[in-house]
Write a structure and sequence with these properties.
The protein is mainly alpha-helical and about 220 residues long. It is about 60% helix and about 10% strand. The two termini are about 45 Å apart.
Length: about 220
């Protein structure tokens, strides 16, 4: 028995209350009213544009702490999502994608190689076996394989041996790119076949000699 194998947010500002508007002299109520309203509007705008004294530092520190906490939570969430995606074969780096592509191609090549041996070898070929490598997506890919094949001669039958060795040799050379081991098996099958042919020729000579004696 021999083996045929393949090559391996924005926060609002705070404001203070406005002081009450003073009394308006008689006869100037409407004009003073408009002036007071205008003055109130400007004062409100100025008040809202700046934070209240004594609250600015505390609010800013609280805001920064809240933003930092939110940022950490977002980072942790993204890390968890990335890990989950990597486990499912997604979101791989360029190097990992390249490795995955090569592994898939190697897996197809190895399986086709061993399938060719087994298909042509028929009854003389054994089951396919593979060696695997885990890819970056977590899946297993075949990177090597072999098929056992019977290269023993048929005892006492040179003609049957010749026919068997023809099948064995064809099975060894069946893949598109036979390995060194495949070529060694093919060479051994050829040697066995030549020996069987020599036995047949010797047997025929013996029979012819016997016929000549009794002729």
């Amino acid at each position: 028995m021999n083996v045929l194998s393949s090559v391996p947010p924005i926060f609002p500002s705070t404001g203070g209350a406005l002081p009450p508007v003073g009394a308006v002299p008689p006869g100037q109520q409407s004009t003073s009213g408009r002036t007071a309203a205008a003055g109130e509007t400007a004062t409100e705008a100025n008040t809202r544009s700046a934070p209240a004294v004594g609250q600015s530092a505390g609010n800013n520190d609280a805001n920064r702490a809240t933003e930092q906490s939110s940022g950490r939570q977002r980072d942790e969430s993204r890390q968890g999502e990335n890990a989950s995606q990597r486990n499912n074969g997604q979101n791989l780096t360029p190097d990992q994608l390249k490795e995955l592509t090569e592994l898939k191609a190697r897996d197809r090549e190895v399986r086709a190689h061993e399938q060719a041996h087994q298909s042509v070898g028929g009854q003389y070929a054994g089951a396919m076996s593979f060696t695997y490598e885990r890819g970056p997506d977590g899946a297993q890919y075949a990177v090597g394989g072999e098929v056992s094949i019977d290269v023993s001669p048929v005892e006492g039958d040179p003609q049957a041996t010749i026919e068997k060795m023809r099948v064995v040799r064809a099975a060894a050379m069946a893949p598109a790119q036979p390995s060194a081991q495949d070529r060694a098996v093919a060479a051994r099958a050829m040697q066995t076949m030549l020996q069987a042919q020599a036995e047949m020729a010797a047997g025929e000579d013996e029979r012819e000699g016997a016929l000549s004696v009794f002729a």
